[in-house]
Amino acid sequence: MFSTEEIESLDRSYFSVIYVDAYDLTIMSKNTGHVWYIHNPEYPEPGNCIIFHKHRASHPYHRHGRAGSLRQAVRSIQGHDAFQMNGRKPIGRK
Prior knowledge:
By secondary structure, the protein is of the alpha+beta class. The chain is built from 2 helices and 5 strands; from the N terminus they run αβββββα. The protein has helices spanning 4-8, 70-85; strands spanning 15-20, 24-29, 35-39, 49-54, 62-67. The longest helix is centred in the C-terminal third of the chain and has 16 residues, at 70-85. The radius of gyration is 13 Å and the shape is globular.
């Protein structure tokens, strides 16, 4: 479960919050426009998060990874943004 403090600590200048409840958070990076869904199932222990990601709102989500906390998930997302913005080679998919 995400705490109120964790949710309130999100940098609103970096992310747009699309949806939030105790176990789910959907945010969009203002830098890349990528949409992120973070789920906290609290299994096998509290704090574990599963991170899903999509490049455009119309695309399906794919699994990005796991994190031990919301803070770690946000760091992973920001690292992915840096990779995207600093010269990722385009691939021929649409």
